[in-house]
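[09:14] KT: can someone run the structure on this one? pasting the chain below
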Amino acid sequence: MITLLGGIALLILGYFVYGKYIEKNFGIDPNRKTPAEALTDGYDFIPMSKSKNAIIQLLNIAGTGPIFGPIMGALYGPVAYIWIIIGCIFGGAVHDYMIGMISLRNDGAHLPELASKYLGKPVKHVVNIFAMLLLMLVGTVFVTSPANLIDSITPNWLTLGVIIGLIFVYYLVSTILPIDKAMGAVYPYFGAILIISTLAIGLSLIFGGHTIPNLTPSTMQNFNPEGTPIFPVLFFTISCGALSGFHATQAPMVSRTSKNEKEGRFTFYGMMIAEGVIAMIWAAASMSLFDGQTLSQMISSGTPSLVVNQVSYMLLGSVFGTVAIIGVIVLPISSGLSAFRSLRTIVADYLHIKQDTLKKVLMVTIPLYVISLVLTQVDFNILWRYFNWANQVTAVISLLVSTRYLYLKNKNYLVTLLPGVFMLYACVVYIFSEPIGFGMGLTTMTYILSTLLTVGIMALYWETGKKQKRGLDPTDELLNDQLPIGTFASDSK
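[09:31] RB: done, structure tokens below
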């Protein structure tokens, strides 16, 4: 229990201390007009309140990631807490804040456009591919996982196929609505369900007489019953709740609805901290109620959805347990919606299809849903593995964009460079060692090749950054993004 409560306290402290430093290092301008105010279009660029933006951001990024990931991460034992706490404060929250604020300074641009601007135009195509792949996998995973949960609490006549179809219908209707109608109107209610159900799980766990594993010298080991190594697998198993590249596809949406730069720390950094708290609670619940072998069998036989069901009913009973399950259901549905909405805009931007009529919106949207529907037939565990790798590669790209941004402006870039290099190395080791990649296993050769490739990528990154910086003059747009929207010829609107 001490580790759980202490970990949550550290996460909150991180928001007030390190989050404040990250904000200062970025250098906000409370008087600068935001894209929501300067580029209002009644669809994506709409000024909304700080509280509404925050809850939209939380629901967009949360999905089943901070629940399913920690459930599977619990197989490793209390060591999972370390990654959630450190990863969230120094990695994920910094990642979310930087991309959200850089997007806000660049007319609400999505990650591919930011990568093109700060890393070079050739990188844009690579990032577009990764972003589209990631969002398609996210959207599909966040259709499959809530469908399984809904199926577990509904009558037999409501089949899994029908539930999946109904979710897609909801996504389609919501996709063609303005963001304040699609998300702003309903997300506060979804958020209330999420927060109440998560608090109920946490309080029941703490005050219900359960033995909550603590992080001690004796528990600082790998408890995974299958012997799966902590590095690099744990860092991919738990992504949402620690560090997740998917968030870089979501933050720009909220940067288009924010009314003041000073709201960024609460909206971007703070909501990632909230996600970390959710991850801590579900990791602790899974470790407390099940031994590793039982947990592994439940995940294998019914995906983490079965664990969610059992935890909810065991801690809260049938009635309130069902409410808790509904709270978990709204997370992936809301994140799936935002994933497809982001995917639509990225594909439309890439293909230069302006989203100014219903016909053009549907022209992009419907083919994406058809592809996703086909992918729902793929085994969930396989989808999850590919999603997590693509997810963390996207996180690396986002952190490198953020590092270049800070480097060009002579600010402390180590805050994004260090987590970026760590995750880059983890991504390379993962793809070399795992069956979804080259299947080399964790051999000496794997580590040597991974080190050489990581060093090579970072050397190229550093040299291109130095060259880019030498080519800038003091009046360059990259150094003066604090100026009003419309100052530079490249402003999109």
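[09:33] KT: thanks! The domain at 2-395 is CATH 1.20.1740.10 (Amino acid/polyamine transporter I).
[09:34] RB: yep, looked fine to me
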